[in-house]
Amino acid sequence: MMIFVNDLPGIFYCQKIKTYCIIGWFFSNKMSLTGLIITLMSLDFINE
User: Fold this and answer.
1) Residue ranges of domains in the chain
2) Distances in Å between the alpha carbon of 29 and those of 7, 11, 35, 36, 48?
3) What pLDDT does 40 receive?
4) Which H/E stretch holds residue 24?
5) Residue (of 41, 34, 31, 36) closest to 12 by Cα position
6) Residue 4 vs residues 24, 40, 48: alpha-carbon distances, Å
7) Tell me: the pLDDT tens digits for 2-48?
8) What keywords would UniProt list here (predicted)?
């Protein structure tokens, strides 16, 4: 399942991330910069 998140910095391709993608999307819509950081941190955490 691939989720397309349309945000100010660009488009996030969240694949096989599930909850972290949703959290990043939520915060990105509320606070773009904070959401971007959280999304990047979530992606880095999942990649480990």
Assistant:
1) 2-47
2) 7, 12, 7, 10, 26
3) 73
4) helix 19-30
5) 36
6) 12, 15, 22
7) 444 554 343 444 555 555 565 656 655 555 566 667 667 766 655 55
8) Membrane, Transmembrane, Transmembrane helix
